[in-house]
Amino acid sequence: LAEADNNTAERALRAVCLGKKNYMFFGNDHGGERGALLYGLIGTCRLNGIDPEAYLRHILSVLPEWPSNRVDELLPWNVVFTDK
């Protein structure tokens, strides 16, 4: 029987712990919420095997013309990268 561990969770929090000195410069609670949103999005990309930088670049390039009723297609687990 294998022992349960939380190595995955500890590794996920490592980046947060390493960067916490920088977080005081988010400015306010809204800045912190935006930072948390980005960290969550980057983590979700990694869990889905997607390069976060490529994902953000793609999303920012297609979002201005994207229909609002299809925004769920841009989530990391649904996104299909296309050449523009």
TrEMBL record:
Residues 41-77 form the Transposase IS66 C-terminal domain. Pfam families: DDE_Tnp_IS66, DDE_Tnp_IS66_C. It comes from the Bacteria. Residues 3-33 form the Transposase IS66 central domain. InterPro entries: IS66_C (IPR039552), Transposase-related (IPR052344), Transposase_IS66_central (IPR004291). This is IS66 family transposase. It comes from Escherichia coli. The lineage of its organism: Bacteria, Pseudomonadati, Pseudomonadota, Gammaproteobacteria, Enterobacterales.
